[in-house]
Amino acid sequence: MAEGIMDRPRFHSLARYLKRKLPCGDLVDVRVVSVPPRDLAGGNVAFSARRGRFRICIEKGASTNNAIGMLLHEFSHILAWELDLDDESGSWIACAQKTVWGWYLEWLGGA
Which residues of 14-35 are buried (b: 16+ CB within 10 A; e: fewer)? Predict the structure, then answer.
């Protein structure tokens, strides 16, 4: 797959796997969307209190590697929030990101 072209089946396979691993995964929607150029991050997560769901949006122009990196990052935020970790202290990095990357390595072993 050329750099800059997302392998969507692979990306969505990982998203489904992470949703199964995450305790609140049934409350997570993952979307590949056009992101305005001013959003340099290329991805984000938000919680809708009205819908009671998390929504992860990843830029459709991202390469597979970048999209997967953003997906892991955004799932780490959700796990940190679910574990009630202080997202600003950096403690979520040590716990949530380690867990999510562990899930990614499990997925890679079976992919």
Answer: bbebbbebbeebebbebebeeb
Residue with tokens 């692979």: 10
Residue type, 92: W
pTM for the structure as a whole: 0.84
Q: Is residue 35 a contact partner of residue 6, using CB atoms and an 8 Å limit?
A: no
Tell me the per-residue pLDDT of 79-106, one tens digit each, with 9 for 90 and over: 988 877 665 666 666 788 999 999 999 9
Structure tokens at 14: 């990982």
Instruction: List the alpha helices (DSSP H) in 31-111.
Output: 64-82, 91-92, 98-110
DSSP state of 59: E
Query: What gap in Å lies between CA 14 and CA 29, rounded to an integer?
Result: 13
CB of 8 within 8 A of CB of 64? no
| Pair 19, 77: CB distance under 8 Å | no
User: Among 14-18, 29-33, 81-85, where is mean pLDDT lowest?
Assistant: 81-85
